[in-house]
Hints:
single chain, mainly alpha, two-stranded antiparallel sheet, 6% strand
Amino acid sequence: MAGRKKEPVSLILAKGKSNHLTKEEIEKRLSVENKVKGGDDKIRPPDYTAAYWDQSDVEEFYDLAQELMEVGILFNLDVDTLVQYIDTRRQYVEITKALRKEKPMSNVKTEAGGNRKVANKNYGSLQRNKEMVTGQLRRIASELGLTLSARIKLVVPEAPEKPKSKFDKFGSGR
């Protein structure tokens, strides 16, 4: 049985639930989190993609990388995950195009000279492949913060501001 994923310390602090962490633990986790992020100065497609990527794949890589870097999600350690996303997305598009050319049912001539509709095996195979690739695409997109639910988890909520009263300026703080 797996436990919950660790939340970033900034998120824990924003939620106001840091009472189970000591100041030393908070400082240690913050320093580790900052080290783990890595540098974002070397984000480019890995050399191995040159063997099978075309120019549109490279452009998509840089477009997505730029957007993800602007929101502070993508770092040089995440490049392979972005490559997986682009590759899987291309597979999804190719399977979807092939699926649209197929019909779910085919006409088959019977021995009596008539026609009978039967399930198109190629359509079913393509549909299963599409479902598999869709699952992979969702998982990778979630890891990169490309889904709504993933982005919501990444947003650090701001602590609500307490309403100011006329007594605050005198330091009563009640």
